[in-house]
C-alpha cells in the first residue's frame, strides 16, 4: 500500500510541477550524452546515476524525461515502502496502517517528489541497508550483512557520502557487547572498500573522492575556517567581541542543521507530546548511532564548504521518525474515536497537499519557450538560462554562455528576465536587436526572445 500510494503521489507531484528541477536536467542531459558518446561525460564527476538512467532510457519506449520521472518514482515508492516497514515492524499489527500513512505523509519525501534526484536511489539503498543491519543484529544471518554491504555500495554510487552511513551502521552493530573484534574487522573491511573505490575510480572520478577526503583534513579545514571567521568578525562583529567571531560563525552554521531537521519533520514533532514510548534497545542503538555520525558528517561538510541543502538532512529525519512514530501510535491508541479520525484525515491531507505544487505552473514559460524554439529554423546563439536551453533540445550547460558582440539577422538570443527588467533590456539592445517573442506564464520571470536586425 505504501508503494502504490507513493506512485500515486509522485504522479500528482509531476503533474502539478511539470518543469524539471535543475539537477534533473543535468542528469538527463548526461544520460543522453552517455547514450550518444559512449560514456564521455564532463559535466559532473560522479555520474553513475546518469549511467543507470542511460541504460533504462535505451530500452524505454517513452521519452527521456518521462522515463527519468518513472525511474525516480519507483525509487521513491521503494523508499516510502521501506520507511513504512521500518515503522510498522516496531508496533502492533493493528497500527501498521498508521505506518503507511505516516510514511506517505513524510514531508522530507514529499518536498522532493517532483524532482529527479540521485538522492532518491540513495535514500532507498540507505533505508534498505538499515533494515538489513537490523535483521542481521536480530538473526546473525550473514546474508543480511552481505545484503547490507551491497546496498551501501549501490547507495555510494548514487551519493558517495552514503559511505558515512556504512561506517555508522558498522559502529552501531559493533557497539553491542562481545562484538569488539568484529567491529575492528568491519572497520578494516570498510576501509578496504573505500581504498578499492578510490583506485577503481581515481582516473575518471577521483575528484569527487578527493573532495570528500579534503573535507576530513582537520588541520587545513580549521585554518581555512579561522581565516574566514576572522573576515566575518572584522566585518560584522563589534571590535570588542571579535575574538568570538569563530564561535559565533560556527554556532550559526551548525544551527542550520536542527532548523532544517525541524522543517523536514513538520507536524510530526507534535508526537513528542502524545506519549512516552521509546525505541527497543536494538533500534535505539542503531538509529541513535546513525543520527550522531550523520550529524557530525553534516557539521564537517557545512563548516568545510558553507553549504547545506535540506536534502542532506533527510537521513537525520528518517532515523528520528521511528521514535516519533511510536509516540504517535501510543497517542493514537489512547485517544478518542473522534481524535483518531482527525489524525487519519490530517495525515491523508498532508500526503496529498505535500506532493501538490500550486505555483509550479508559473514556470511553464521555460517549457513553452523551449518547445517554440525547437519549431523555429533560426539558430540560437545565446541563452542566459540553461533550463531554456534544455527544453529547446540543446545541452544543459554548467558555465554561463557569453553573449556574442555581433548578431546576424535571424539569429536568436534568449533571456529569462524579471518582468520589471524586460523593458530595460529591450531598450539597451534596441539599436541592434528586435523583440521576436515573449513567453509569460504568470510568474515573476518571463522569457524574452530577441533577434538581430
Describe the structure.
The protein has a 4-stranded mixed β-sheet. It starts with a helix and ends with a strand. The chain has 19 helices and 4 strands. The chain has 453 residues and is mainly alpha-helical. The chain has 2 domains: 2-355, no CATH class; 361-452, no CATH class. Helix 8 (142-158) runs antiparallel to helix 9 (162-174) and helix 13 crosses helix 15.
List the helices and strands and how they pair.
Elements: H1 2-16, H2 22-37, H3 48-59, H4 64-88, H5 96-104, H6 107-110, H7 119-139, H8 142-158, H9 162-174, H10 180-215, H11 218-236, H12 245-254, H13 256-265, H14 281-305, H15 314-334, H16 337-355, H17 364-375, E1 380-383, H18 386-391, E2 412-418, H19 422-428, E3 433-439, E4 445-452
Parallel strand pairs: 1-2
Antiparallel strand pairs: 2-4, 3-4
Main beta sheet strand tally, sense and closure: 4 strands, mixed
Per DSSP, the total helix count is: 19
Judged by helices, strands and strand pairing, the structural class is mainly alpha
Estimate the global geometry from the Cα principal axes.
globular
Count up the domains.
2
Strand order of the largest sheet: 1-2-4-3
Please tell me how large the radius of gyration is.
25 Å
End-to-end separation: 60 Å
Helical content stands at: 55-70%
Mean pLDDT, all residues: 87
Give a count of the beta strands, DSSP E runs of length 2 or more: 4
Stretches with pLDDT under 50, minimum 5 residues: none
The topology string of helices and strands comes to HHHHHHHHHHHHHHHHHEHEHEE
Could you tell me the strand content as a percent range? 5-15%
